[in-house]
Amino acid sequence: MTAAIIAPSRLRHRARLGVRIGLAALAVSAFGAFGTPAQARGPEGIADVAEKVIDAVVNISTSQTVEAKGGGSNTMPQLPPGSPFEEFFDDFFKNRRGPGGPGGGKGGDNGPPRKTNSLGSGFIIDTSGVVVTNNHVIADADEINVILNDGTKIKAELVGVDKKTDLAVLKFKPTKPLVAVKFGDSDKLRLGDWVVAIGNPFSLGGTVTAGIVSAKNRDISSGPYDSYIQTDAAINRGNSGGPLFNLDGDVIGVNTLIISPSGGSIGIGFAVPSKTVMGVVDQLRQFGELRRGWLGVRIQSVTDEIAESLNIKPPRGALVAGVDDKGPAKPAGIEPGDVVVKFDGKDVKDPKDLSRVVADTAVGKEVDVIIIRKGQEETKKVTLGRLQDPDKVQAAVKTEEPAPEKPVTQKALGLDLAVLNKDLRTRYKIKDSVKGVVVTNVDANSDAAEKRLSAGDVIVEVAQEVVSSGADIQKRVDQLKKDGKKSVLLLVSNADGELRFVALSVQ
Questions:
Q1: Do the beta carbons of residue 228 and residue 166 sit within 8 Å?
Q2: What do you get for the CA distance between the two ends of the chain, in Å?
Q3: DSSP string, 175-186
Q4: What is the rounded CA–CA span in Å between residue 286 and residue 278?
Q5: Can you tell me the distance from the alpha carbon of 196 to that of 251, in angstroms, rounded to the nearest whole number?
Q6: What is the pTM of this model?
Q7: Helix (H) or strand (E) run with residue 448 in it
Q8: What is the pLDDT of residue 450?
Q9: Most confidently predicted of 15-19, 98-102, 141-145
Q10: What is the average pLDDT across 11-30?
């Protein structure tokens, strides 16, 4: 089965072997399948928009030198049996054999470095020669060139990139007057509004397509600040970095991703909204880097079970699972177990909302943060710090440990629990700073297994009370059952001391 996927190379088009493709002409009636006049299929003014902005849209050409490795460019590509291209590639690679066989060296050794070329799109936002595009269009490039609509090719320099939003700013010296476009307000977009995409699909040059806004604030889990505009305007490989216009000719997005089983447009494309782009571009032009706000907390979703345990109705907000000792949240009095429901006057529905609004807030600004603690709202004043090392990904890496031989002291919630001692710290490589009750085994059929608890995890709190033994945990669970609770909230630490909340059924 072929599944729809996000194109791995985003929308950048990499030049490959030329293959002749036959095109069949199709006669199309001026009336659609249901007798709709052709002019009713779209609004008037698209041609005016295209004529107005086409000269501000550019092609981005990059080149990169890569090492030729065995099994790389000289290796026959994997093709389905019976593919019409099979014979073509077979002949091509046979004819390329050098003195030791395919690959040119003895036994197919690595050949000399080779150059690869890529093509994408971009647009001019300043007549001094400032261009916006996607980071993945120019990533790892040795040379970047901007190709204007009239074919003029000019070498460009990189001003700065932001990998988190996949945006980049380039600068080149114009040889003649340029046309620039301005940003519009993506927040004013409505579902069904018409939009126009212009770019360089499949290296065909300035291509205009139109469609509607299919969705807003789309989170496709491609990055920490996802909030894409989804459109059905045809965008393909090579459209990366190109602009998405409204009917006023203002840029309301940067075309970045498609979802497709074949790599071609199926009417599901995503653009970074202009509201995000403007903030990133301003900082890249001013500093050459991003300076994002930092709260200093680790957060997770408020599930229905967690909401029930914390008495939060309806489930909402971002649950604070941990607080950085050196972060701004610590002196402000924010603690693990707090649920952030509003930040600087903006509602927080889920963790992504909090991540985006914190990142967009100026470093050093004092903001009001409304939290829910033990069922009551409280307001904390926080002065934001600056997020450091934005590309650093923190991940807890667990290693499989052999089944414990030491008898456990208590069973509860499908867990085998033991008092944390020196031997268990050594076995599971648990830091000295971690306190609580260690999990030594998990029943495979339990709710705990479904919630991904594993041997070596340490239970720090149960129902927001500190525990030090399996008996403490069982006592708290028994009390919650008597109180009619359906779940119990655990604060769990991994071996490195990183915390998270887990709600387990007590039924």
A1: no
A2: 40
A3: SS------B--G
A4: 12
A5: 9
A6: 0.65
A7: helix 447-450
A8: 86
A9: 141-145
A10: 39
Closest to 504 in 3D by CA, of 207, 287, 301, 306:
306
* The two structure tokens encoding residue 422: 């020196």
- Is residue 194 a contact partner of residue 210, using CB atoms and an 8 Å limit? yes
Residue 445 scores a pLDDT above 80: yes
Say if strands 346-347 and 339-343 run parallel, antiparallel, or are unpaired.
Answer: antiparallel
The candidate with the shortest Cα–Cα distance to 378, out of 370, 367, 389, is 370
- Alpha helices by DSSP H, listed for 110-189, are 135-138
DSSP string across 28-69: --SB-TT--BGGGGS-TTHHHHHHHHGGGEEEEEEEEEE---
Which residue matches tokens 């981005």?
60
Average pLDDT across the chain, whole number: 80
Mean local confidence (pLDDT), 439-454: 87
**Backbone angles phi and psi of 245, in degrees to 5:** -105, 150
Q: Are 489 and 431 in contact (CB under 8 A)?
A: no
Which residue matches tokens 């914190």?
358
Is the pLDDT higher at 197 or at 10? 197
Distance CA 46, CA 51 (A): 9
Catalytic residue list: 136, 166, 240
Contact 119, 9 (CB under 8 A): no
What are the contacts of 341-348 at 24+ separation with CB within 8 A?
341/316, 341/317, 341/370, 341/371, 341/372, 341/377, 342/368, 342/369, 342/370, 343/367, 343/369, 343/370, 344/368, 344/369, 348/316, 348/317, 348/318
